[in-house]
Design goal:
This protein is mainly alpha-helical. It has one domain: Serine Threonine Protein Phosphatase 5, Tetratricopeptide repeat. Helices cover about 45% and strands about 10% of the residues. A hairpin with a 2-residue loop joins strand 8 and strand 9. It is globular, with a radius of gyration of 22 Å.
């Protein structure tokens, strides 16, 4: 079967399955193709999951709204409408824009994953094919969980264990049936589905960690995503266990002394720390070569002189204006995948919250020893678990800058009482985003609301 036939069926299936996300007129005008074939073999299903044009993208509006960078008034006015609105936290985020890729792309990923899962159930493998079938099914479950996680984190409110059963989550589309209506689940149901998918994926996925094909899920990646999810949902004891399981399988850290401090692209796409590759959707302000998105001054100054991240993560644009270099994506896109540095930080935070000060600082110093100029790093100490937690969170901010985490961390921290307000100054006016504002939850695009009649998020 030719790949173009697979592309055609999946393209048309996507349109049909997501009628709610596009106009009926546009859908009806699509012409059928009698030569369309649904992928059925293991090879074809693997190819489908390897489609990096679909599976390597995640939401970017959160990063656009966070405080890792700032814009001058002139550069803000020159930005496109959506990016301008995200930066200034407009209630009418999309204005006249009726669709948005931060919503539609993850659901396209869900569709592809569901096609694979349904086809896997129809295949009667030879004994020699069973490991490959297991890995393909596990990969599809991981990818669906990754998409659901991204949607829940951006289009649902911050997770509170006490209220998660009553807070609205997202539609959990676990079938390719285009006639089935999916309403919004509760927030708890959403994350329960994610954990169920990942628990099965862990059992099915290969132990082998991809060396170059980092877009392929692995057992270490599934444990890592479980750790990320449990951190976000405040299950810190489970986050510790899953982070530890991930690091037991893969724990490579890059010695930044081996990385060029002058290169605009310091890291290759398949670098040693990447466990699973993903990148933010393509917004012009998020492109790391942007000359108008300037790194937050206070953040930039928080890096010590001998901290190699200061010159590896950032670049001088002009005068005192500091921009970003290409990160772990190796491209202009913001890396949003899983990497070992994040997993070390998750385990360190979980240790600190559990009162294990020594273990928290051991993990933190293991990471930081690879980030400072040789012979200059002095291991950090903490007087108690709370001090350790503060130090871990400080380094989380500095290590995971421009990685898609800050907006989600702000939601999590503020829901725990951090009381962090964000401030923008534009055209002489000060705009403030207060803690726990409903604007931290992205609105669902208008066409989705109209077609599926689901409830909109408050703004």
């Amino acid at each position: 079967m030719k790949i173009k036939n697979i592309i055609t069926i999946l393209y048309i299936s996507t349109i049909a399955w997501m009628t709610f996300a596009c106009s009926k007129k546009e859908f009806l005008e699509k012409k059928p193709n009698s030569g369309i074939i649904i992928p059925t073999s293991l090879e074809e299903l693997r190819w489908l999951l390897d489609n990096t044009n679909i599976f390597t993208f995640s939401p970017g509006l959160g990063e656009l709204s966070a405080d890792n960078y700032y814009l001058s008034s002139t550069n803000w006015l020159a930005a496109n409408l959506l990016e301008r609105n995200a930066y200034s936290w407009e209630k009418d985020l999309y204005a006249s824009i009726r669709q948005n890729s931060d919503w539609s792309v993850p659901y396209q990923q869900v569709l592809y994953a569901n096609i694979v899962l349904e086809q896997c159930e129809k295949i009667k493998p030879l004994q020699s094919e069973q490991p490959l079938l297991n890995d393909i099914k596990g990969s599809a479950l991981f990818l669906r969980a990754y998409a659901f996680t991204s949607l829940l984190q951006h289009f649902a409110p911050a997770y509170h264990p006490q209220t998660a059963t009553t807070q609205l989550g997202i539609p959990l589309r676990t079938s390719t049936d285009i006639n089935k209506i999916f309403t919004r689940s509760s927030l708890k149901q959403g994350f329960d589905q994610v954990e169920t998918d990942l628990a099965t994926a862990v059992r099915l996925l290969s132990l082998q960690q991809p060396i170059t094909e980092k877009n392929r899920p692995s057992k270490a990646a599934a444990y890592g995503l479980l750790a990320r999810v449990c951190l976000y949902t405040k299950q810190y004891d489970r986050a510790l266990l899953f982070a530890d399981s991930s690091l037991q399988l893969y724990r490579s850290l890059i010695d930044y002394n081996t990385i060029s401090a002058t290169a605009v692209t310091p890291f290759p796409r398949s670098n040693d720390e990447t466990i699973y590759y993903c990148q933010a959707n393509n917004y012009s302000l998020l492109q790391t070569i942007s000359a108008v998105a300037w790194a937050d001054t206070t953040l930039y100054r928080s890096y010590a002189t001998n901290d190699l991240r200061r010159n590896i993560f950032f670049r001088s644009i002009s005068g005192n204006d500091i921009g970003f270099k290409r990160g772990y994506s190796g491209t202009v896109f913001v890396f949003t995948g899983l990497a070992t540095d994040e997993i070390y930080l998750i385990r360190a935070e979980a240790y600190a919250r559990a009162g294990n000060t020594q273990a928290a600082m051991t993990d933190l110093n293991t990471l930081l020893a690879k980030r400072f100029r040789i012979g200059t790093f002095q291991p950090l100490t903490a007087i108690n678990a709370n001090d350790a937690l503060n130090k871990v969170l400080t380094e989380r901010r500095k290590e995971l800058v421009w990685r898609g985490h800050r907006w989600l961390d702000l939601k999590r921290f503020n829901s725990e009482g951090a009381s962090i307000s964000l401030i923008r100054v534009l055209n002489g006016n000060t705009i403030t985003l207060p803690p726990n504002s409903p604007l931290y939850t992205l609105p669902i695009p208008a066409e989705e609301i109209e077609q599926s009649q689901i409830q909109q998020n408050p703004r």
